[in-house]
Amino acid sequence: MLDVRDLVVRYGPFLACDRINIHVKPGEIVGVIGPNGAGKSSIARAIAGLVTPTEGQIDFLGESILGIESHLLIRRGLSLVPEGRGLFAHMSIEENLLMGGYSLKNPVRRSELMARCYDLFPILKQRRRQIAGTLSGGQQQMVAVSVGLMGDPKLCIFDEPSLGLAPIVIQQIGETLQAMRKLDLTVLLIEQNAKLASTVADHIYVISAGRTQYHDTPQALLENPDVLEKFLSA
Ligand SMILES: Nc1ncnc2c1ncn2[C@@H]1O[C@H](COP(=O)(O)OP(=O)(O)OP(=O)(O)O)[C@@H](O)[C@H]1O
Ligand SMILES: [Mg+2]
Q1: For position 234, what pLDDT does the model report?
Q2: DSSP 8-state code for residue 133
Q3: Is the CB of 13 under 6 A from ligand 1?
Q4: Is residue 88 one of the residues assigned to a domain?
Q5: Least confident of 8-12, 92-96, 161-165
Q6: Average model confidence (pLDDT) across the chain
Q7: Which domain, by its residues, includes 192?
Q8: For residue 4, what are the β-bridge partners?
């Protein structure tokens, strides 16, 4: 479904991603983990059309998506839930969801998707008129996930959904990600939280200093404490 080959991202002279390869098959949850500044968000932003790679190839559903703008990628089924959530803080939950579904032409589908989000997060339905900026961090993350799902994606990229959240809320995020398997969604999960990624992912890439340092199943990674220590304790 997603094929990233030899991706290079530079910011001026600074090399943020140095020949990254990532493969995601339909229905998988794939984790990308690494410490602060590893280049994780740069990968996400390059795939979502928000930064221009210096080199490399990115194919989505069998076609190159290099150079395609992010709002057109959403229409093709690729959605990014950005680090920091990117909500409209002064709008209500429901208005944020509608913004997420703006590119959908079919109002019936839009209503179906909204119902699906409210099924996934019943608290958002109860509070749908509440202003997003007044919600707790965990609830804001639920809104951000829902905004991503409102674009009717086939592949959803989550950039550090656990950031700043309490352990119990992080566990709920894990459960939500598992629930996405049943919704026929494919997920690229970018995380500093190796535990969350290991709990939900089918396979995991460990990125550090812009490079892929390790790639295997979560089980293999957990049996390899050296990798965790070397690349994730930063
Ligand atoms: N727009 C930019 N201009 C210059 N340097 C940047 C820019 N964005 C990111 N960088 C640098 O590129 C490197 C990788 O950043 P990136 O945000 O991809 O890392 P990350 O793994 O997502 O980190 P974090 O865990 O902090 O979110 C960092 O050293 C960062 O300072
Ligand atoms: Mg980041």
Answers
A1: 47
A2: G
A3: no
A4: no
A5: 161-165
A6: 93
A7: 1-77+155-164+187-234
A8: 22, 58
Nearest to 81 by CA among 140, 164, 144: 144
Q: Let me know if 129 is exposed, middle or buried by CB neighbors in 10 A (0-12, 13-18, 19+).
A: exposed
What CATH number does residue 5 fall under?
3.40.50.300
Comparing 183 with 7, which gets the higher pLDDT? 7
Q: What angle do CA 21, 26, 28 make, to 5 degrees?
A: 75
Q: Domain for residue 9, yes or no?
A: yes
In the sheet with 55-60, reading across from the earlier edge strand, the strands are 14-24, 2-11, 55-60, 63-64
What would the mean pLDDT of 90-116 be, rounded to a whole number?
Answer: 93
Shortest-distance atom of ligand 1 to CA 38: 21
192 lines ligand 1 (CB under 6 A): yes
pLDDT tier at 183, thresholds 50, 70, 90 = confident
Probe target for ligand 1 pocket from 14, 20, 192, 208, with the most ligand atoms within 8 Å of CB: 14
Q: How far is the CA of 108 from the centre of ligand 2 (A)?
A: 35
Look at the block and give the residue holding tokens 């968000």: 41
Residue 36 in domain: yes
Cβ–ligand 1 contact at 47 (below 6 Å): no
Strands, E assignment, the chain:
2-11, 14-24, 29-33, 55-60, 63-64, 78-81, 155-159, 186-191, 203-208, 211-216
Alpha carbon separation from 200 to 5, 53, 100, 135, 182 (Å, rounded): 24, 29, 25, 26, 13
Instruction: Identify the pLDDT of residue 228.
Output: 81
Q: Look at residue 60 and tell me if it is in a domain.
A: yes
For residue 3, how many other CB atoms are within 10 A of its CB?
16
Q: What is the pLDDT of residue 112?
A: 95
- Report how many domains make up the chain: 1
